[in-house]
Amino acid sequence: MLEVNQLSKRFEGGRGVGELNFSMQRGEIVGFLGPNGAGKTTSMRLITGYLQPTKGQVLLDSISVHDQGRRVRSRIGYLPENPPLYHDMTVSGYLSFVASLRDVPARGQKVRISEMISRLGLNGRERQLVRSLSKGYKQRLGLAGAIIHKPDLLVLDEPTSGLDPNQILEIRELIRELGEQHTVLLSTHILPEVSTLCNRVLIINQGKLVLDGSPDSIGGRGDEPFKVVVELKGEESRIQSVFSAWEHASAEVLKDNPEAEVQGTVRLLLTGRSGEDFREPLFYQLSEAGIPVLEMKKENMSLEQIFQKLTTSEASAGLAPVDGKEAQDEENAGHLS
């Protein structure tokens, strides 16, 4: 559905993004992560057509976002970190204004606005001025404006920023529901939010994409030792002797179960000599020794650990040179396009 090919944006001083390449399929909720200044917001503005790239292209169903802007942007919903609201409007007045800009048919506007008010929990606030809304309700209203035209692609920049815990849970549940009908690109600094909501993760650092994978798979990156926690039944001394010279992994006894001695069990952390999966030879090793396996669990790096490693590594390179004329400083994108 969405294709990002060699996308680059260069600003004075070397800021920007360089040669991003990724694609998204219909129905995906993709987490877009990176430290402050990594280029996330710039990337999202390029994807939604708010900024022109220095190089590369963004395609929505093979149609260029930048060459056929209005035609494509009508299929995109965008919620910036600070929702583009007009504080002197009422809630219903704002939604009516956005619906007209988004070419929602006049005959269906009242029904669509009513749906948005109900779905986003704005009931009873239709006549309230936007300036008097709380942060949470402003986020809801901004999200209503982003989806009122039923976009195929929804781009959300920190949608839960500044919300209280109850509001965060409500917005997360709403994003999960939206993912059933829309393709969602979600930028957030709350990493557990990504693990909860997203079926894929993109991590950007210094303007470059450094990781693309599912939350379940990226923990087992090949450059990390393969790790397994096992709970075995038997005497600790005998179990340790089985692994004392095992070629595939080293063994460390875990003392996190005070009842282990009573139960006659031992928990071990097995750390591989490489990133290779050693569970099959482990099975045969324990089978030959006659040691019952009560539990075996693969230990992955957490998303937080992976994020920290990829965004603080000294090996992370800066932006590669970008062909063409150097762009001017990032312009202030308009509220709505």
Structure summarized in a few sentences:
The chain has helices at residues 40-47, 69-73, 91-101, 106-119, 135-147, 165-178, 191-197, 236-243, 260-263, 279-289, 303-312; strands spanning 2-10, 16-24, 29-33, 55-60, 63-64, 76-79, 153-157, 183-187, 200-205, 208-213, 227-233, 249-254, 265-272, 293-299.
Query: Looking at the structure, what is the overall shape?
Result: elongated
Rg over CA atoms, rounded to whole Å, is 25 Å
Strand order of the largest sheet: 6-7-8-3-9-10
Indicate the CATH class of the largest domain.
Answer: Alpha Beta
Beta-strand percent range: 25-35%
Q: Number of DSSP strands?
A: 14
Number of helical regions: 11
CATH superfamily of the largest domain: P-loop containing nucleotide triphosphate hydrolases
- What pattern of helices and strands is seen along the backbone? EEEHEEHEHHHEHEHEEEHEHEHEH
Largest sheet: 6 strands, mixed
Mean pLDDT across all amino acids: 83
Helicity level, as a percent range?
25-40%
Q: What structural category characterises the helix and strand content? A: alpha/beta
Identify low-pLDDT runs: 314-337
CATH third-tier fold name of the largest domain = Rossmann fold
CATH architecture of the largest domain: 3-Layer(aba) Sandwich
Distance between the termini: 21 Å
Number of domains: 2
Keywords: ATP-binding, Nucleotide-binding, Transport
Region (Disordered): 317-337
Protein name: ABC transporter ATP-binding protein
Pfam families: ABC_tran
